[in-house]
What does this fold into?
Amino acid sequence: MHDESKKKRQDANAQGAYAEALAEQYLCDRGLNTITKNFRCKVGEIDLIMNDNECITFVEVKYRKSNAFGSAAESVTKAKQRKVKLAAQVFAQMHRQYSQSPFRFDVLAIDGQEINWIQNAF
It folds into this structure.
């Protein structure tokens, strides 16, 4: 049983990494530039931090193979939004060169093969 759960976790991590790479490429193709990926701190994690015409964009990437249990975008809970916002504050404190730039919080939702970029999601 332990090996089975470990395999599922590895599969989920691989899917997450694939989705984040796909999201980054999608956003770069639309003119954004990557500042960093997978920013982690005590209060949370941010999948992608991008620069969009001097606007620092914090991106939560969500992937769903199917929307049988709800869409990828719907899975970004209020609690997750709070954590991303707190992590963004930590990022700005650590990287003062961005502290005067406007911030935006986006969701890039991938449902199967469909990509939905929601700007100013929260």
